[in-house]
Amino acid sequence: xxxxxxxxxxxxxxxxxxxxxxxxxxxxxxxxxxxxxxxxxxxxxxxxxxxxxxxxxxxxxxxxxxxxxxxxxxxxxxxxxxxxxxxxxxxxxxxxxxxxxxxxxxxxxxxxxxxxxxxxxxxxxxxxxxxxxxxxxxxxxxxxxxxxxxxxxxxxxxxxxxxxxxxxxxxxxxxxxxxxxxxxxxxxxxxxxxxxxxxxxxxxxxxxxxxxxxxxxxxxxxxxxxxxxxxxxxxxxxxxxxxxxxxxxxxxxxxxxxx
Length: 259
Known about the structure:
Blueprint: E1 2-3, E2 6-11, E3 14-19, H1 30-45, E4 51-56, E5 60-62, H2 67-70, H3 75-94, E6 100-104, E7 107-109, H4 111-117, E8 121-125, E9 129-131, H5 148-153, H6 155-162, E10 168-169, H7 170-175, E11 181-183, H8 188-200, H9 204-217, H10 222-235, H11 238-249
Parallel strand pairs: 3-4, 4-6, 5-7, 6-8, 7-9, 8-11
Antiparallel strand pairs: 1-2, 2-3, 9-10
Helix pairs in contact: 1-3, 9-10
């Protein structure tokens, strides 16, 4: 399926989401954010999918937020329609029920790095550069660059990118724990496919629950993780089946405390 500027391909248990605006180095605008949200929903709703890959078309993973998309906005519109909406979209990606692998086929800068940061695993090609250049434009990383990236990468490396404007190579990013693997130019997607096959061979329920528990341990939306885990557990019980049946049959429920 295609949703605007994001393609979604299903290959067995694997979903591949490709950000497709290569003429702009996959710089993100509102249409792309909406397309990412739709792609996330499509992957989430497909029961056959066990793992997903996120990548970019062309020479870049993503050059970040398109200045032409937000540069004219007044403060309120910028805060609500751009920053808050983008935050919700990236949170949607970060909380997919399936593991998400980012195949960094090109530079990941600003919002592009924040997009990559929503993934569980990052595989980068050797030629890429990563960084958070926003303060050089008089703005801040607004799509969880100072929040999720700090939790996942550590505060000091984010300080160096956001405050010092440092741009790192793929090898440097691997040393700092920002990416997990460095591969040759043009091979990130295939390497991600190989890793995805490894993930997909494991227990789907165990993967989903392990992802929730790891996110909770890392301080990422503990409330959602706890409620999701609790709901999954309760959904397996005989008491819930009895409660639903009693409601449908318009009779008092006869709970037995059976798991």
